[in-house]
Amino acid sequence: MRTHRGIVLTVLLAVLVPFSLAGCSASRSSAGSGANDPGARDGSPTPAVVAENARPGTPDWRLRRKGPQEEIEGFADRVSVLPGEPFRLFVSTTADGFAVEAFRVGWYGGAQARKVWESPRRAGFRQASARTSEETGTVVAPWKPSMTVPTVNWPEGVYLLRLTADSGAQRYVPITVRSADATGRIVVLNATTTWQAYNTWGGRNLYKGPTGYADRSRAVSFDRPYDRGGTGKFMAYEHSAIVLAEKTGVRLAYATDNDLHRQPGLLRGARGLLTLGHSEYWSTSMRDGATRARDEGVNIAFLGANAVNRHIRFADTALGPDRLVICYKDATEDPVARTDPAESTQDWRLPPKPRPESDLIGIMYNCFPAVGSFTVHRPAHWLFRGTGVRRGTTFPGLIGPETDALNWGGPTPRPIEVLAHSPINCGAFVKTADATYYTTRSGSGVFATGTMRWVCAMRGTACGHGVTGAAQRFVSRVTENLLRAMAAGPMGSAHPARDNLEEFSP
Questions:
Q1: Which chain positions lie within coiled-coil regions (predicted)?
Q2: What gap in Å lies between CA 450 and CA 436, rounded to an integer?
Q3: Looking at the 3D structure of the chain, how many domains does it have?
Q4: What is the rounded CA–CA span in Å between residue 154 and residue 363?
Q5: pLDDT tens across 265-300, in order?
Q6: Domain range for residue 354?
Q7: Spatial distance between the Cα atoms of 393 and 413, rounded to a whole number of angstroms
Q8: CB–CB of 307/361 below 8 Å?
């Protein structure tokens, strides 16, 4: 809910700020330290975010009709670009022509997106069939570029390009307009490597091939469209959280997994790192960069489960650097395991160089498929302020389909608070899922929900799985409390964890 101050600020900005503010907010000057921005100092709403979201949204941003995939589909030759940088779009369609619209994801008074650009109609044609590597099972779309898309005056953020064929069929292409500088801001991290790991376009991903697991891909390429309407896992695990974050008005920056890998110092000076519903695939550079940031006072939040579970490497493709995600999932298969064991691509917790993810997250992956109710254990915790919960309050459906829990084998950062301790059914086993908060000597705070359904629950009953309106209100309020605390500075300094690990046993 907006404060009276926020409403007044929004009205003033709507009147006083020039229409071109969106382009200015994307410039390098606005991506700096924010010395004149109160949001950079105390976590209060930042004018750039408030002003952007006060602009009229575009309710008609969703796909009206998907149709068969071959009717219209596409991909970009960049995972992210800086504001003003162009990128090439590769489109295949069975129609005679198509057009493109670019929508920035945000709050926008509930519209959830704003159209910032559209193309003229372009001639369409059917591109070549998928090509598969015999060595790694990597699928690529060997297509010709269809057009170059400018991003002049596009504010930083996450965009959905809607492709519309003459026939009316539509698909998305996601693109992130990343921030040049994260100083004083919370970095929203798009889990692009996880999107690609599960992408079944062309018949293979890191989980299955034509006959099952044995002929799965050992490396997946960004040189192909996404499945699921063209967005991969974005809509299910990230969209709602970004809308909510922009609604709060806190100072945000945007980046992708690819960016964090390529720029380990990307988080330097940031207030926080926000990972969303499913951030499973991490490279060494990504993990080291996040760990170093935490140790320098940067807050981290994991709004999902199964994060930092798979170790990956990046490689280049014909279209550019770091567009190939390598993950054999088995050290006995990965040739690098013999020459550079620290870069072997199996689960992070496994040999030859085990680094359990709990060392960063506080908890670690423990179950799929998980079914249960989120059960509050420490209701007086500051993250739960305004929710009205009591010890033992439950939220059906909020747990699942994957969960994290305390790692009794270690490592577990201390002090750590278990905020929710939820009994779950995991196939034939009864286990628990845990939501935790720990703090560090650097002053940073790290929160983990322990469930993959946290972001989905922001949609309320539309999430399905028995999620209720009460769960939606709870998750939204906790996330708002979290974002404002992250934006204000090192959470551990303001809210040190009160260790309660002794209340639990393995």
A1: none
A2: 8
A3: 1
A4: 38
A5: 999 999 999 999 999 999 999 999 999 999 999 999
A6: 186-503
A7: 26
A8: yes
Cα separation of 163 and 97, whole Å?
10
Torsion of CA 265, 155, 473, 452, to 10 degrees: -50
- Of 503, 501, 457, the residue nearest 479 (C-alpha): 457
The tokens describing 261, both together, are: 């890998």
Instruction: Tell me the pLDDT band of 264, cut-offs 50, 70 and 90.
Output: confident
Over residues 312-323, the pLDDT tens digits come to: 999 999 999 999
347-405 pLDDT, tens digit each: 999 999 999 999 999 999 999 999 999 999 999 999 999 999 999 999 999 999 999 99
Peptide bond connecting 210 to the previous residue in cis, omega within 30 degrees of 0? no
Which residues face 115 on adjacent strands? 103
User: Does 417 reside within a domain?
Assistant: yes
CA 162/CA 118 separation, integer angstroms: 9
Q: What's 419's domain CATH number?
A: 3.40.50
Q: What six digits make up the tokens of 405? A: 């829990």
Interatomic CA distance for residues 196 and 48, integer angstroms: 31
Return the sign of the alpha-carbon dihedral for residues 472, 473, 475, 476.
positive
d(CA 228, CA 196): 12
Beta carbons of 193 and 125 less than 8 angstroms apart: no
Query: For residue 179, is it within any domain?
Result: no
Instruction: Report CA-CA distances (Å) from 121 to 97, 101, 146, 161.
Output: 6, 11, 12, 14
Strands 364-367 and 370-375: unpaired
Dist CA 17 CA 267 (whole Å):
29
Residue 73 within any structural domain of the chain: no
